[in-house]
Design a protein that fits this description.
By secondary structure, the protein is of the alpha+beta class. Among the domains are: 124 residues, no CATH class; 61 residues; 55 residues. It is built from twelve helices and 16 strands. The strands form four sheets. The chain has a seven-stranded mixed β-sheet with strand order 1-6-5-4-8-7-9. Strands 12, 13, 14, 15 and 16 form a five-stranded antiparallel β-sheet that branches. The protein starts with 24 loop residues before the first strand and ends with a helix. This is Mu-like prophage I protein. It comes from Corynebacterium efficiens (strain DSM 44549 / YS-314 / AJ 12310 / JCM 11189 / NBRC 100395).
C-alpha cells in the first residue's frame, strides 16, 4: 500500500497497542491464623495467650505498621525467602477471643484455586516488642503468614514449595522479617499436631461432647481440654502409633498460677483444704474447687487483719474464728443487749411496735398538713386549685407551716370588710358639732 495519498502527503498509520491482561486477584475471608494454646516455634515452645492475640489485633490497627504479607513457606537457608503473594487484612478475634482471624487478600487466582490441596496448612510469623516506623512499640505484632504444604518443614516441604513456585513462574523476592515463626510440628513421620486435634474432635473425647482443646503438649504427649458445659479442665494422655491415635482416661485438673520465683501463689488454694473429714464419695460428687485472684486474696487477708503472705491455713483459721464470734453475738441474751443499749443512751423497742408507731405518726402528720393547707386556702393564701400540689410539697418537706404563716392573702375572702379602718382609736364621732368643719364655720 502506497504510504502517500493522492496529494502526495504521507498517510498516518495506526499503531496497535496491546494492554497487558490485569492479574486476577481474589480474597479468602475469615481464615483462622492461630489459636490460644501451646505451639512449637522456631525459638522453642510458644504459649499463645488471649492477651497475645489481642495485642496482635491492636498492632494491626496501627497506621504505621505494614499489613502482614502472605508467603509460600518460611525462610530456607538455601535461598533468600519466598515471594509475597498477598496480604492479611481485617485482623480480628473470634467471638470467644481464642482465635486470631484475618482475610487473605490479593491472592493470585491460580493460588486461591490450589490452596485447599497444595497448601492446606498455615503458619504465622510475628515478633514481641515490635517497633513500627513511627517509633510506637507493640507488645506483639503479626508480620507474615506462610502457606505450608502437607508436611511441616522438618520433613522437607520447603523444597516442594519451591518447586510449586517455579511451576507457576513465581520469582523469589522480598526480605525476611526478623522475629520467629510457628507451625504445625510433626510428632512422628506421619502425624502432625493438626492431625491430633482433628482426631480429638472426630474420633476422640471431643466427639459428641462440648470439649475443646486448650493446650497440647508433646513431651509427654497429652492434651488439656475444657468441658464447655461446666468449665472443668481435663488432662488426657494420648499414644501415637504409625496408623492411629489412642486417647487415655481423662483426669480432672485445675489451673494453678505460679509466680516467676516458682513460689506457689496464694490464689491456688482451694476450700477443700479446710474440709479434712469430708468423705471421698462426697468429694467426688461435689464441685468445691475455688480459685481466687491475687487481688481477691489481698482483699481477704486485709479484711481479716492478716499479713500479706498468710497461707491458706491462716486464712481458714481467721474465717472460722470470725464465724464463731458472729454466732456468739447472735445467741447473746436480749437482757444483755438491752443493758448495752441503755449504757449507750439508747432504748430497745419491739420491731412491730416501732412500725406501728411510725405508721400512726405518719397519719398524724398527714392530717396536720391537710389542716394547715385548708386553712391557707380559706385565708386566701392559696388558690383552691393549688391544694393538691401544696399537700404534696408538705409531704416532701418543701413547704412548712412557717411558710404558710408568712404568706400574704392573694384574694379578699367573703365576710372581710374592705376600705374601713378597724382601729377604734381613730373612729370619728356621730355628733356634727364635733366635726372640724362645724367648729371652723364662720
Amino acid at each position: 500500500m502506497d504510504p502517500r495519498d493522492r496529494n502526495g502527503r504521507r498517510r498516518r498509520t495506526m499503531t496497535e497497542i496491546i494492554a497487558p491482561e490485569r492479574p486476577q486477584l481474589r480474597t479468602i475471608p475469615g481464615v483462622e491464623l492461630i489459636k490460644v494454646g501451646q505451639w512449637p516455634a522456631s525459638t522453642g515452645t510458644w504459649d499463645v495467650t488471649a492477651e497475645d492475640l489481642a495485642a496482635a489485633v491492636r498492632a494491626a490497627q496501627s497506621p504505621s505498621l505494614s499489613r502482614p504479607v502472605i508467603k509460600l513457606g518460611h525462610t530456607d537457608p538455601r535461598f533468600d525467602g519466598e515471594p509475597a503473594v498477598g496480604w492479611v487484612d481485617a485482623i480480628r478475634l473470634s467471638d470467644d477471643g481464642s482465635t486470631l482471624v484475618g482475610d487473605l487478600k490479593g491472592l493470585p487466582a491460580w493460588l486461591a484455586d490450589i490452596m485447599p490441596s497444595a497448601y492446606p496448612n498455615r503458619s504465622i510469623e510475628g515478633a514481641y516488642n515490635y517497633t513500627d516506623q513511627s517509633g510506637a512499640r507493640h507488645d506483639f505484632a503479626l508480620t507474615a503468614v506462610a502457606l505450608l504444604g502437607v508436611s511441616p518443614p522438618a520433613i522437607g516441604p520447603l523444597e516442594s514449595l519451591r518447586d510449586v513456585a517455579a511451576l507457576y513462574e513465581v520469582t523469589a523476592s522480598g526480605n525476611q522479617q526478623e522475629g520467629f515463626w510457628i507451625m504445625p510440628k510433626t510428632i512422628n513421620a506421619s502425624t502432625s499436631v493438626e492431625d491430633v486435634r482433628m482426631n480429638f474432635y472426630e474420633q476422640g473425647p471431643g466427639k459428641d461432647t462440648y470439649w475443646w482443646i486448650e493446650e497440647l503438649f508433646l513431651d509427654p504427649p497429652e492434651a488439656i481440654a475444657m468441658d464447655d458445659e461446666n468449665g472443668q479442665l481435663y488432662r488426657i494422655p494420648l499414644t501415637i502409633s504409625e496408623d492411629s491415635i489412642t486417647w487415655g482416661e481423662p483426669q480432672a485438673v485445675k489451673r494453678e498460677y505460679v509466680a516467676a520465683s516458682k513460689k506457689v501463689a496464694a490464689a491456688s488454694w482451694t476450700k477443700n483444704e479446710s474440709r479434712k473429714n469430708i468423705k471421698a464419695a462426697e468429694a467426688e460428687e461435689e464441685d468445691t474447687d475455688m480459685e481466687l485472684t491475687t487481688e481477691q486474696v489481698t482483699a481477704l487477708t486485709t479484711a481479716l487483719g492478716l499479713a500479706a503472705d498468710a497461707d491458706a491455713a491462716a486464712i481458714v483459721t481467721a474465717v472460722e474464728k470470725l464465724s464463731k464470734d458472729t454466732t456468739s453475738q447472735d445467741d447473746e441474751p436480749a437482757a444483755t443487749i438491752a443493758a448495752r443499749a441503755e449504757h449507750l443512751g439508747m432504748k430497745l423497742i419491739d420491731a412491730a411496735a416501732w412500725e406501728s408507731t411510725q405508721k400512726r405518726l405518719g397519719e398524724m402528720a398527714t392530717r396536720e398538713n391537710t389542716r394547715l393547707v385548708d386553712d391557707a386556702v380559706r385565708a386566701g393564701k392559696l388558690m383552691p386549685a393549688s391544694r393538691s400540689r401544696a399537700l404534696e410539697q408538705m409531704e416532701r418537706g418543701l413547704l412548712t407551716a412557717t411558710d404558710l404563716d408568712a404568706m400574704k392573702p392573694l384574694v379578699t375572702m367573703a365576710g372581710a370588710e374592705v376600705g374601713h379602718n378597724h382601729n377604734p382609736d381613730t373612729r370619728t364621732s356621730d355628733d356634727v358639732r364635733e366635726s372640724e368643719i362645724y367648729k371652723n364655720w364662720k
